[in-house]
């Protein structure tokens, strides 16, 4: 699948995912999404925070801030039910909780997640 096709699929599934979260008592605000190469470097290059091969650079990753009953939940464990749901939504889905980055939801593409 072409990158642009995967980006559109990712965006559509993010909408479904966010709706599922709110329907199930999890409130989200946006964190990081696209990481501009002028600031963060091109794919494979590290200029600022984040991994040099981040899916954010391909527009295939999004970080969220999680709130339950109005209280911010920063731990990976708090994100576990969301991560488990996300992983069921597509074969390319990846969840950062598998490597200690619980608020990260992405699609795999050419070895990048």
Describe the structure.
- Strands 1, 2, 3, 4 and 5 form a five-stranded antiparallel beta sheet that branches.
- It is globular, with a radius of gyration of 14 Å.
- It has 113 residues and is α+β, with helices and mostly antiparallel strands.
- It has helices spanning 3-23, 37-40, 76-88, and strands at residues 27-30, 61-68, 71-72, 93-95, 104-107.
Question: Short description, anyone?
Answer:
The chain has helices spanning 3-23, 37-40, 76-88; strands at residues 27-30, 61-68, 71-72, 93-95, 104-107.
Main beta sheet: strand number and arrangement? 5 strands, antiparallel
Mean pLDDT: 89
| Helix fraction bin | 25-40%
Please, how many helices?
A: 3
Count all strands and give the number.
5
| Overall form | globular
Query: For the CA atoms, what is the radius of gyration?
Result: 14 Å
Question: What is the subunit organization of this protein?
Answer: single chain
What distance lies between the first and last C-alpha atoms, to the nearest angstrom?
15 Å
Percentage of residues in DSSP E strands? 15-25%
> Ranges with pLDDT <50 over ≥5 residues?
none
Order of helices and strands: HEHEEHEE
Assign the structural class, choosing from mainly alpha, mainly beta, alpha/beta, alpha+beta, or little secondary structure.
alpha+beta
Topology:
Blueprint: H1 3-23, E1 27-30, H2 37-40, E2 61-68, E3 71-72, H3 76-88, E4 93-95, E5 104-107
Antiparallel strand pairs: 1-2, 2-3, 2-5, 4-5
